[in-house]
Structures are given as C-alpha cells and as structure tokens.
Design a protein that fits this description.
The chain has 20 helices and 9 strands. By secondary structure, the protein is mostly helical. This is Endoglucanase.
Length: about 625
C-alpha cells in the first residue's frame, strides 16, 4: 500500500504490520501512565481538565497591565487602610481644640523705636503729608526762602525739619541727622522691615534730602552759595521777634524768617554731601532719585574742597548754637561716604590721606577722642573705614591708614568699657562722654550705636572680639555696654524715669517745645502771647511722642521744667542717634548687618587681569 510522501516520493506502508489493535491500546495506556507520573505545568493541566475543573487564576488583568492577584489585594487593602487612617487623623485634628502660639511681644528697643521715629513727624516743616499722624501739627514755614531778595540764588526753602523746641532749621546738625539715619538703614534694613518701620524711616530721610536739594543749585556742577540756616535765634538784640524770643506754634509764625547763606563752608557742605551720598545708597533701587542725590553730593563735596572755611566762623548764629570746631573730620567722613556712593577711588584716597587724618585729630587723643557728635564725626569715620578693611581689605595703598583707623576704633571701644577710666560714669551708670556738661544723652546714644554696630561688624567677620592691651574682650561686652546705656535712657536709672516721651509710665511732661506746649484750640497766640504756656507749670497739652530730652545731670538728677532746655529740650541730632542705637539693639541678634549693600557702587578691589597676548608668529 502506497501513500503520498510529503517530500515528493511514494510512501510505502507495510500492511503486514504484526501489531494488533490490542497491543497498540496497551502501549498507549502505558504512555499515558508514564506522562501522568511526571508533574504537569499549568498549560498542560488546562488541556486535561474541563472548563469547570480549571484552577483559580493567580493573576488579575487590569486592561493595561497584568498583576499578581496577591499583590493587587495587598495594594488595594493598603490604600483603603491609609485613607481610613488619614480620615481618622483629620477628624481628630478638627475636633481637638487648638492652642495658637502667639509671637513673643516686641522687645523694649523695638517699642521705643516706633516712638522715636514719630518725633521726626512732629518736627516736619512745610506742607505736611496726610499720614503725618501728629494731630496737633499743621502746615508751617510755607514762605521760607521766598523773600523779596532777588539777588539770592535760593528761592524756595519750604520743607525740612525744625531743629529742636524752636522753629529754626539748622542745616549742619540736620545733615548729620540724616546721615546717621541713612547709615542705620543701610546696616539694619532687615530689622527696620521686621519692625514695620522701613518705609517710615525712608520717608523721613527723603523729607530731609528733598529739602537739602533746595538749599543749593543741585542741578549745577559748581556752586558758590549754600543755605546754612532758616530763622534767627539770637535774642541779644532786644525784643525783635524771632524764633527764640517768641513762644509761638510754627503754624502761627508771622514774623520774618531770614535765610543765612554761606560761601565758604567746608564743614557744612561736606556734611550735607555725606547726607546725600549715604541716602543715595538707601534709595539705590530708585535709580533716578539716587542718581540725583549722587550728583548733588558731588557738587557739594567739590564746593567744600574749593571754598575752604568753617561755616560758623563769620556767622554769629551758628557760632552760638552749633559752632563747628573744624572741617577736617567732615572731609574724612564725607570722603568715605562719597566713595561708597560712587565707587570713585579718588574719594577713598582723600579719606585715607594721612595728612587729612592728622588734621582731623586722629593721632591727637584728647578728652573728647572717640565721641561722635554733630560737630565731630571722626569716630564715625574711623568705624566706617574699619568696616571697609574688615570686609573688602583693599590693601595697598590704603592698608596702612586703614589699619591705623582699625586700631584706633579698637581703642575707642575700649574707652567705652567700665574697666577703663577714659570717661566717668554717674552712680546710675550713665557714661559721661561730655564730661559732666549739660545735654549728655545725644552723645551717649551715638556711642551706643557705634558699639553695637562694631560688635555686629566683628560677628559678621567671624571675629569673636578684640584686644584692649593684653586683655581680650568678646563682642558681647560691647553689646552689653550699648544695652546698659540705652536701658538707662528707657528707665533703668535712679529716678526710674524714661527720658523718651511717651515710653513707659514715667517720662517728662514739660518738654521744652513750642508746638507741644501750646494747645491747638483755634486761638492764634502772638509772639509774647505764648509766653504764658512757656511759663506754665502744667504739663504740655500735646504729647510729643518719641522725643528724647536733653537728659539728666552728672548726678543723675533731672528737673522736668519747660524753661530749662538743658534738661527738657529734644533735638534732631539726639533722636537720630537714638533711632540708630535702638534699631541696632532691636529684634533677634541672629538678624545681622547687611554686609554688601554699602558696597553696591564699589568696583571689585582686584580687577580681573587682562587675557594673555596672542602667540607670537614669526
């Protein structure tokens, strides 16, 4: 029998196969038993089992992915348990009463800072802003500088600040005040912002700088005239109405207020340049205004160098009230601020000239060495230039004099400490920087600011302290000095009296201040009509919040008497130093100084070297 060979040839089938059907059946059964004796895989089992007998699947088909049934069950269970747990926790959180942790109350320095800044609102002259927040003040001095003298180049001096308890505008101490405020903002803007006062203090600074820009031809590159003062205070001429003879609210002044101009006033011009230069750093984000301030400062500093002389030399008014002893310290101070504002190294060369430092008294010593005031800025300049050495270290050719200033700053800080005898102290602990003379607090607050600031400089430079001879003192010692002095002013003194009006429960009520002592009752008191308020024994009807009075005597004594200005009169310069010291001590010590903003206009100390020359080709 033949069949078809799938490979194309005949296939012969042996029909005479001897195997019977019974043999073949027996052989197949043996094969089945042999197959079943081996374990079958899942697929093989599915062949042998019917549809109803198949094993339960171990996998779950999710459409896009096939996962193990065991993993799937665990995953779903975990998700459901997590959701239940989250809901349970949320239920507990929503039902259990919450205890809100309040922020700690502001420290005394921050509280006093709020009040000290308000004093500048009370001293504003000109058209007041709507948010001035001093209810008993109004527009005043609206005719300042607008005299019939057509020969004067200065036509408008409306604005600025009244100096103290009178209505005179002295530009020399006012400029120093604005410089101090600007310096404090440059160093401690984060603390001002934390206290909610940054916009306020910048507004105060701008009120001052806007007025200074009116006091000379600020659009010119060269000037010959500068306004030094508005108003008159000399009463030696008899009963002529003026700002000291009369006791009148500034809003009710009807007498003439002459303008005093100067043509040779290096000290005033350099100090005003310092004010505009430092303020230009405060307003560096307002490029147009900052540029305007820098230009005005440049013009003023040039004027101070071209026309040498003391502003008070031929001015009886200035020599009586704010006599300047020298202009060399303003050259160092103003030169340093001009350098920081412009980055022009010629100003740094001037500020670090050894001859200039010698004339300024850097090597003299003396009883007033280290005392920063509206008259002598040397101590401030020494600290300011020590900052430059600590953080930028410009090296040659400045290093020698900067190292000298740095060493002198260390000596000044040593002189503030109780273990040294450079300055006496009252029994209550107030340092006598003016050697027992009246009105001590304005000098104390400046020293407290310098001490706290220098302490922060050292901390920022990772320097734990400084040496006084062989003795090492930590930065905490300096900060503690600043705190004890400010604490004295805030009420920790033998009289338990705060010398800042409105701070604490016991403070001066008879402040020597015309506006605060005369009620705002729609009655206009003439020049002599206000004398009854001056001589009244009753407390002032208006509280001049934040005013720091002149202070106690060398025995911790204080007379709260309106007519005694040596005890009860506040000043712009005094409050500017107070604000600076308070912000330096306020808040958390972890909020340090701003190391870099003051150097924003300063170019790199070590310029990038030029690229190497191209390879030589023959």
């Amino acid at each position: 029998m033949y069949g078809r060979d799938p490979w194309g040839g005949p296939l012969e089938i042996n029909a005479t196969d001897s195997a019977t059907e019974e043999d073949r059946s027996r052989n197949l059964q043996d094969l089945d038993r042999a197959a079943l004796s081996r374990p079958l895989d899942e697929t093989q089992q599915s062949w042998l089992l019917g549809p109803g007998e198949q094993k339960k699947k171990k996998y779950v088909d999710l459409g896009c992915i096939i996962v193990s049934r065991k993993i799937f069950v665990w995953t779903v269970g975990t998700v459901l348990f997590a959701a239940f747990l989250a809901g349970f926790i949320a239920l507990i959180v929503n039902t259990v009463p919450r205890h809100h942790h309040k922020h700690p109350p502001p420290d005394n320095y921050t509280l006093a800072l709020h009040k000290a800044l308000m004093f500048f609102n009370a001293q504003r002259s000109g058209k007041l802003p709507k948010h001035n927040n001093v209810s008993w003040r109004g527009n005043s001095g609206m005719q300042d500088g607008k005299s019939s003298d057509t020969s004067s180049a200065i036509k408008d001096l409306v604005g600025g600040f009244y100096d103290a308890g009178d209505a005179i505008k002295f530009n020399f101490p006012a400029s120093f005040s604005i410089t101090m405020l600007s310096w404090s903002v440059i160093e401690y803007s984060a603390k001002y912002e934390a206290a909610g006062e940054l916009d306020h203090v910048k507004e105060i600074i701008k009120w001052g700088t806007d007025y200074f820009l009116k006091s000379f031809n600020s659009t010119a590159d060269t000037i010959t005239t500068l306004a030094a003062q508005v108003g008159v205070g000399d009463t030696s001429g008899g009963s002529t109405p003026n700002d000291h003879y009369c006791w009148t609210r500034p809003e009710d002044i009807d007498y003439e207020r002459p303008v005093t101009e100067c043509h040779s006033c290096s000290d005033l011009a350099a100090e005003m340049a310092a004010a505009l230069a430092s303020a230009s750093i405060v307003f560096k984000d307002n490029k147009a205004y900052s540029k305007k301030l820098v230009h005005g400062a440049t013009t003023l500093f040039k004027f101070s160098r071209d026309q040498r002389g003391r502003y008070s030399a031929g001015n009886s008014e200035a020599s009586i009230f704010y006599n300047s002893t020298s202009y060399w310290d303003e050259y160092v101070w103003g030169g340093a601020w001009m350098y920081f504002a412009t980055g022009n190294s010629s100003y740094l060369k001037l500020a670090t000239a050894p001859g200039l430092a010698k004339h300024a008294g850097a090597f003299w010593g003396g009883s007033d060495y280290g005392v920063l005031s509206w008259d002598n800025k040397l101590a401030g300049a020494q600290v300011l230039l020590s900052r430059l050495r600590l953080f930028l270290s410009p090296g040659y050719p400045y290093e020698e004099i900067l190292r000298t200033f740095h060493n002198q700053t260390s000596i000044i800080m040593c002189s503030y400490l109780p273990v040294f005898t450079s300055f006496n102290r009252t029994k209550g602990g107030l340092i006598q920087l003016n050697h027992g003379r009246p009105q001590p607090l304005q000098y104390v607050v400046n020293a407290a600011f310098l001490a706290a600031l220098y302490s922060d400089y050292l901390d920022a430079a990772d320097t734990p302290g400084w040496y006084c001879g062989p003795n090492f003192f930590s930065t905490d010692v300096l900060r503690n000095f600043a705190k004890t002095q400010i604490d004295y002013i805030l009420g920790k003194n033998p009289r338990k009296m705060s010398y800042i009006v409105g701070f604490g429960n016991h403070y001066p009520k008879h402040v020597h201040h015309r506006g605060a002592s005369i009620p705002k009752n729609k009655v206009k008191y003439n020049c002599k009509g206000g004398w009854k308020w001056r001589d009244s024994s009753k407390p002032n009807p208006n509280t001049i919040v934040g005013a720091m009075v002149a202070g106690p005597d060398k025995h911790d004594g204080f007379r709260d008497v309106r007519t005694n200005y040596n005890y009860t009169e506040p000043t712009l310069a005094g409050n500017a130093g107070l604000v600076a010291a308070l912000v330096a001590l306020s808040g958390d010590k972890s909020t340090s100084i701003d190391k870099n903003t003051i150097f924003s206009a300063v170019p790199p100390m070590f310029p990038t070297p030029p690229p190497p020359p191209a390879p030589w080709k023959p």
